[in-house]
Every structure is written in C-alpha cells, then in structure tokens.
Amino acid sequence: MNAEKIPDIIIGRLPIYMRALQRMSEKGIQTTSSQELGERVGISAAQIRKDISQFGEFGKQGTGYHIPFLLDKLRSILKVDRVWDVALVGAGDMGHALARYQGFRDRGFQIVMVFDNDAQKVGEKVGDFIVQDMSSLAETIRKAGVKMAMLTVPAVAAQDVADELVKAGVKAILNYAPISLNVPPDVKVQHIDPASHLQRMTYYL
Predict the structure, then answer these.
(1) CATH assignment of 3-77?
(2) Closest Cα to residue 196, out of 178, 174, 175?
(3) Per residue in 35-89, pLDDT tens?
(4) What is the CATH number of domain 84-197?
C-alpha cells in the first residue's frame, strides 16, 4: 500500500473511528456496523465503508466489524501500535499543559523532552521534565532519534525553530503557533490554531 496514494482527508478520519471504537470496546461491545459507527461519529455509513476499504476488507456482510480486530488494524495502519517519542518546544502555558497531559500514551505518543530559549524557564521542572536550553535541541533530538515534535512557541519564532527541528531529523511537526511553516516535502506539518477553529464556528452562530 502506497501511503501517498491515500487521500489525507481519509487518514484524518481514521483517528475519529479509532476513538469511537475504543469507547465501544471499553463498554464491552465486540461488534459494530458502519451504520452504528457512523451515528456515533457523524459520518455516513457509506463513507466509513469506503474509507476503511481503502486498506483492505475488515468487515463481513451481515455481521459488520469485529471491534478488537478493526482497532488493531487501524492502529497498525496509523503506526500507533507502538509508542512514538515526541519533543516539545516551548514551555509557556500551552507547553506546560501538554507536558502534563496524561492522555497521549494511550494513543501512541509520549513526550520525552521539553525545550525553551527563555533562561528563566531553562532548568525548571514541567511535569516530569526539566526544561532544556534550545541551544542543545538539534544535538539532543538527533542523538535520541526523535522524529516528532510539538511546537508551542510564539509565531515570530516558529519558523526558525521548525528549521532547527528539520535539521535535527524531525519528520512530523504539530504546530500550535498561528503561522504556516515552510518545511521540505518529506516533513509533515499539522497546524492547530484554536482561534481559526473558533472563527469557523462563529459563522454558524
């Protein structure tokens, strides 16, 4: 299967299906249909069947999907059947919250290091981590083989930090700064700008 041939919008829906399936599994539910899953996530049954069939036939006509099996398959497809190490850059309010958040590990990720360029923050404890100086970022990340990073720095600093992360071998960046980043084609960036999402909702109010 060529990952590049699967539309990104489909990849974006898989974690939504996984989250719903996980909740059903926790309630002891063993099987589900695309209809039931669709009602839980607000996506049509036909779309769910089409999305999942991109990766193989995981359901049976008349009996639907076996939840533990489908969960395992989706974890494998998204490569979260392992735990990924993540570097966090920016130890402000958002960085503090993310460093302390306990929900990442259950979903395949763990923050393993935190960086900041503010001398007053370097050396302080944030959650389980001691904040490290940005000057050591490239070497520390490269040595640890970390491939993912979260960026919670001000917009004015985000591109410079992204450049450093790319140099350090990072291939995926989750960017909380309200700015678009320029990165090489082989580096994936996801932007999370809460204000943009709020503006998108106010249209409907």
Answers:
(1) 1.10.10.10
(2) 178
(3) 999 999 999 999 999 999 999 887 666 678 999 999 999 999 999 999 999 999 9
(4) 3.40.50.720
Residue 139: other Cβ atoms inside 10 A: 10
Per-residue pLDDT reduced to its tens digit, 161-179 = 999 999 999 999 999 999 9
> What pTM value is reported for the model?
0.85
Please report, as a single letter, which amino acid is at residue 108.
G
In contact, 141 and 169? CB cutoff 8 Å:
yes
Q: Which tens digits make up the pLDDT trace of 131-140?
A: 999 999 999 9
Separation CA 167–CA 164 (nearest Å): 5
Residue boundaries of the structural domains of the chain: 3-77, 84-197
What is the β-pairing status of strands 129-130 and 125-126? antiparallel
Q: Following DSSP, what letter does each residue of 115-171 receive, concatenated?
A: EES-TTTTT-EETTEEPEEGGGHHHHHHHHT--EEEE-S-HHHHHHHHHHHHHTT--
* Rounded to 5°, angle at Cα 80 from 79 and 85: 105
Distances (CA, A) of 190 to 38, 83, 102, 116, 177: 25, 19, 21, 21, 11
DSSP state of 3: G
Could you give the CA distance from residue 141 to residue 137 in angstroms, rounded to a whole number?
6
175's tokens? 């960017």
